[in-house]
User: Fold this.
Amino acid sequence: MIGVEGRQLGVTKTMDALRLAREQGLDLILISPTASPPVAKLADFGKFKYEQTKHDKVAKKAQKASVIKEVKLTPKIGEHDLQVRISRSREFLGKRNRVKVSVFFRGREVTHKEYGRKVLDKLVLAVADIGQPEGIPKMEGRNMVLLIVPK
Assistant:
């Protein structure tokens, strides 16, 4: 059992802990029910809930949701267009975003997946210093998709 100031009061029986809480005008809050023995705290439940929600808001504000940006390519993409996509990918990775690279095949291009793979490999090689591929390229319908995450 933990007291009001945060110091440990030791192991006590449940009935004794409830009596002690009532005498002090506080509540007995179960903190860790799975621990052996279970951990309980003497506190005002309303104040405890308020502090807990405040703590949760701060924790939520601190975490940053991972944003996925997409770059689309074709197997027959021009050299300048590829350089533009590379620079955009580098920019996204520099901002700590994940980049989804899609090579989409039109018509009969899908029979020659190796051309799309070559274009994808060029892009991965160009951003290798700031990003790394997550897994291997996968075919999703007529698209070859690869996710690149910042290092």
Notes: The chain has a mean pLDDT of 92. The beta strands are 27-32, 39-43, 68-73, 98-104, 131-140, 143-150. The first helix runs from residue 14 to 24.
